[in-house]
Amino acid sequence: MNTATFTNLIGAVTGRNFSICARLNWRETAPAGETLEPDTVYFVGMTLPITGRTVGFDWKTPKHDEKMLRSFITAFTSKYREPDPDTYACYEGGNRWEAMTPERREGAFGHHSGHMLSKQKLLEQVQARFEAPEMEAALNRWGFYETEYGIGIFCFWLTASTLNAMQKMRQYLAAKGLTAKEEFSDARWVYRFRLEISKDMHRGILGQFND
Questions:
Q1: What is residue 95's predicted lDDT score, i.e. its pLDDT?
Q2: HSE-up of 11 (CA within 13 Å, CB side)?
Q3: Whole-structure pTM value
């Protein structure tokens, strides 16, 4: 899985400016390579603009590309810590979220876990991103990837944006005179366009689609 492409995709999916770094040890990271390696621990994080603090979580990639986005979303909703403004509604004065300075809001990333967005709220945010009209363009640019069998697209939810992106690929392949067998993966996390040519040729076809 191409690191830059997947980084752009998770940015669109979560609405956060995440980067993906190689995990060297419990406290050190380094820029990830061009390709995300399977079954490997990475640090997914971002730098807060005012305090410069880095926030994020460790994510272990799955063994197969088809599970990549599902695995990431599971880690994001389970491990990522970000303040939930609603949990400060009962406070008074400057302790209410609306009254906090930007510095205090960034400091709230270190508050008690009871103040963090729940797994359900994070998942609802991701689903809302998939349902947004602008997700179609993001999927067209970053949601497809080449495989040994052809081209796959992550379809965590079959929203209008996902279906439209799939249709655009279908039309693109037809315009190039290519016939693909179409199917869902067993777990239905990926929709496959099976061309059965070669991975290099599939990469070239996809590269032209993204141009």
A1: 85
A2: 14
A3: 0.91
Contact 81, 16 (CB under 8 A): no
Q: Are 33 and 150 in contact (CB under 8 A)?
A: no
SS3 for 24? coil
Whether residue 198 is predicted with pLDDT greater than 90 in this model: the reply is: no
Tens-digit pLDDT profile for residues 139-179: 999 999 999 899 999 988 899 999 999 999 999 999 999 98
Query: Burial level of 174, CB count in 10 A (0-12/13-18/19+)?
Result: exposed
Give me the residue label for tokens 């979220």.
Answer: 97
Per residue in 70-85, pLDDT (tens digit) is 999 999 999 999 999 9
Based on the number of CB atoms within 10 Å of its own CB, is 76 exposed (0-12), middle (13-18) or buried (19 or more)? buried
Strands (DSSP E) found in the chain: 19-23, 29-31, 41-47, 54-60, 144-146, 150-154, 181-184, 190-194
CA distance 184 to 136: 19
